[in-house]
Amino acid sequence: MTEKRTVAVLGTGIMGAAMARNIARAGHALRVWNRSREKAEPLAADGAHVAGTPAEVVEGADVVLTVLYDGAAALEVMRQAAPGLRAGAAWAQATTAGLEALPELAEFAGKHGLVFFDAPVLGTRQPAEEGKLTVIAAGPVAERDRVTPVFDAVGVRTVWAGEDGAQGGATRLKLVANSWVLAVTGAAGEALALAEALGAAPEAFLDLVADGPLDMPYLRLKAGMIMEDRLTPASFAAETAAKDARLIVEAGERHGVRLDVAAASAERFRRVVEQGRGRQDMAAAYWASFEGDGRVSGQRHEGQAS
Bridge-partner residues for 237, per DSSP? Predict the structure, then answer.
C-alpha cells in the first residue's frame, strides 16, 4: 500500500486545483492555499483543509507543492510560509520558474531544512484533471520516496532529470518541451489565419494534411478550439504561455543559442495579452495575426465559427 502523505498545495489555479484534487483522491491529507481564496474554497468538497495563509497551509506538511505563476511568485509565497515550515519536509516546486530563479529557490530550501525538488509538469487542464501529467523532476535519489506518492497521484509517469534541483535539469527539459508546444500552437493559429485571409477554408487545410505526416492530434485540438471559438475556459492560459516564451528566449540567450521561432512566439503571445486575451487559452495566439483587438472586417469575426 502506498504510504500516505500530508500535502500542502500552494496555488490552486488551472493546474494546481486539478493536481490537488487528484492528490486528495489518492488518499493523501490535503491542505490548500491560494492568493484568491475563492479559487481554493471548492477543494473543501474534496476533503481539503483550506488555509488562510501560506504559513498555515504548510503546518505539519510532509510535502509542500507550489504551483504558482513563476519563480518570483514561488519565492515570495514560500517566504510567507516560512514560519509554518517543518524542517525535513520536501518542497516540490512545480512552477515553470526559469533557470535564473532556481538557485535562489534552492538556497531558501536549504536555509529552512527542506529537501528541494525541481518538479515542473508537462500537460494542460485535461491531463491535469485526469491525473495524466508527466512530472519532470530533479532531486536527491535518497529522498525521492518522499515525493513519489504525490507525483504518482498527479501524473502517469515521472521523468527524473538530475539529482540536484538547483542545477535545473528538470526545468531545462521543461523549457525545451514548452518551446515545441508554443511553436506548434503559434503555427496552427497562423496557418488558420492565413487560410482565411487567402480565402482557403481552414477545413480544407485540415483535410489536406489529414492522416499524413504533417497531421497531429495537437493541431486538431488547437484548431478546433479556434474554429469553434472555445478559448475559455483556458486549458493553458495565453498569459502563462507568454511568460514561458520569455523564459525560453532568455535561456537561449544566456547559453548562446539564437531562438528565432521562440522569440517570434514570445512576441506573438505578448500581442495576445495586449489584446486583452491573456486569460483565454493559448490557442488565442491565432488572434495575434490581426491588428487591434482581432476584429477584422471581411475576415473571421469574434464569436463566429469558421
Answer: 281
pLDDT at 301: 38
Nearest Cα to 284, choosing from 206, 186, 215, 184?
Answer: 186
The residues, any chain, with a CB within 8 Å of residue 15's CB and separated by 6 or more, are 67, 94, 121, 124, 125, 128
Say if residue 30 is exposed, middle or buried (CB neighbours under 10 Å; 0-12, 13-18, 19+).
buried
Q: For residues 169 and 235, what is the distance between their CA atoms, to the nearest angstrom? A: 26
**What count of Cα atoms within 13 Å lies in the side-chain half-sphere of residue 203?**
4
Alpha helices in the chain (DSSP H): 14-25, 54-57, 71-81, 102-111, 125-129, 148-154, 169-197, 202-209, 217-227, 238-254, 260-274
% of residues, the chain, pLDDT over 90: 93
- Report the DSSP beta bridge partners of residue 281: 237
133-137 and 155-160 beta bridge pairing: parallel
C-alpha cell at 6: 500530508
At 258 the pLDDT is 95
CB of 162 within 8 A of CB of 138? yes
User: Which residues in the chain show pLDDT less than 50?
Assistant: 1, 295-306
Helix (H) or strand (E) holding 32: strand 29-33
Q: How far is CA 259 from CA 139, 213, 245, 273, in A?
A: 29, 25, 11, 21
> What pTM was estimated for this model as a whole?
0.90
Residue 16 and residue 24 in contact, taking contact as beta carbons nearer than 8 Å: no
Residue reference for cell 504525490: 150
CA distance 155 to 26: 12
Residue listed under C-alpha cell 499524413: 212
